[in-house]
Amino acid sequence: MIVSKIVRYPIKTMAGESLQQAFVGELGIEGDRIVHVEDGRGQVITSRTHPKFLGLQGTLGPNGDPLVDGKPWDSPEVRVQVVKIGGVGAKLVRYEGAERFDVLPLLVATDGAITEFGHDYRRLRPNIIIGGVEGLAERDWEGKCLQIGSVLIGIQDLRMRCIMTSFNPDTQVQNKEITQGIYQRFEGKLALNCFVIQEGQIAIGDTVNLIEREF
Question: Against a cut of 0.90, is the pTM above it?
């Protein structure tokens, strides 16, 4: 098995960026989900209720600061876009604590499960895609670990999927049958909630080993 894709989402709920390599720290891919959207009441909002955010591209600039469609995340132009989608009072907030993740810092998917899913992998929003995996083998990985060079990733459980999977990443058009299909065919679960046991660098093409280890 190998690392076939690495994806970072600097702005939570916006489109992510593919990487050739990344540092995996205690809180996942460095620079992942370090900015989120809040409404006028200070509540976090996502593309579950405001899917047009998926049409904005989040990246990290050369200096490590988040960008939205190539513009600084705190620029006036981006503020206008965020209000247009999120409503009056909506704003981007930078926060790098562990609570910024919906479940755990890393979401790992496999090429076998994505093939079985039959739709764009971006609907699942994984951080790492493992290639060379047969079918739905990931469903037997709970409680095991993935070793990628010096990096050790613990696998907690399968991720329960939400309505966000129903939105086309490019057009934001909704097809609820896709989410319904996940529940009908996969008990509502696809990809793996993971955490970092040992930090380090990973890159596309790195060998991945599935190992038994207590954590």
Answer: yes
